[in-house]
């Protein structure tokens, strides 16, 4: 079995694959202060709860945008799974030709998403990842990573309103039924969520105009379904896109 780690700034998403089939997925909070033993025991508990022992994990692959956790998870893999993990980064075969000015600047999560989107949906394709930041990536018909956009995510926007204003409260990101609202909380929710929908549709329209009018649009990440319900430009939601990308990259590098 393969254990895949997608390490984001807010959450770590883990997936267990048997061949190409995703058996289980888990989401835990990202904590840079946890030791490799703490992560090892937490992963052991999650696997054990689903009837999987540590000895059944043959390989590990890690994608991380949190540098301090990379060594922690590598040591954890060596100690608890007796295997050196594949780490998404320079020297790894992805099958994607990165056209960024400096390819090393592209986050591992964006590369993994691009690999999965191109493999599953073909090109040209646009990937939108609703994480701590909302990122847009353009992949050409030939599988070239052309670049993209990085915007503040929904939680960042909500936290900024709360932290930078004296009277606005901290809110949950629940979509109100109307755009115009008569109380502060719903008005904030409306501005953040429907404002994000407008940003998504405008940026996707501009992206299509710049590189491919026929580009297929795939959304992933924690808020993907909520935004896709209102968006006119998102074609499909794949919540497991990053994990699928990690599996594909593993298969291209396992030998």
Automatic annotation (TrEMBL):
Matching Pfam families, A to Z? Pan_kinase
Which residues lie in coiled coils?
Answer: none
Which residues of the sequence carry a binding annotation for K(+)? Answer: 129
Molecular function GO terms recorded: ATP binding; metal ion binding; pantothenate kinase activity
- SUPFAM superfamilies xref list: Actin-like ATPase domain
Q: How is the cofactor bound?
A: A monovalent cation. Ammonium or potassium.
Catalytic activity entry:
(R)-pantothenate + ATP = (R)-4'-phosphopantothenate + ADP + H(+)
Keyword Acetylation found: no
Does the keyword section mention tRNA-binding? no
A single GO CC term, please? Answer: cytoplasm
Top-tier EC class: transferase
Residues binding ATP? 6-13, 132
Spell out the catalytic residues: 109 (proton acceptor)
Cofactor(s) required, per the database record: K(+); NH4(+)
**Localization per Swiss-Prot or TrEMBL:** Cytoplasm
Its pathway? Cofactor biosynthesis; coenzyme A biosynthesis; CoA from (R)-pantothenate: step 1/5
- EC number(s) given by UniProt: 2.7.1.33
Which of this chain's residues are annotated to bind substrate? 100, 107-110, 184
Instruction: Please give a single GO biological process term from the UniProt record.
Output: coenzyme A biosynthetic process
Complex and partners: Homodimer.
NCBIfam families associated with the record: baf, PRK13318.1-5, PRK13318.1-6, PRK13321.1
Q: Which family does it belong to?
A: Belongs to the type III pantothenate kinase family.
Q: What does this protein do?
A: Catalyzes the phosphorylation of pantothenate (Pan), the first step in CoA biosynthesis.
Q: Which PANTHER family match?
A: TYPE III PANTOTHENATE KINASE
Q: Which HAMAP family match?
A: Pantothen_kinase_3
Name the UniProt record assigns to this protein: Type III pantothenate kinase
User: Which species is this record about?
Assistant: Caldanaerobacter subterraneus
The gene name on file is coaX
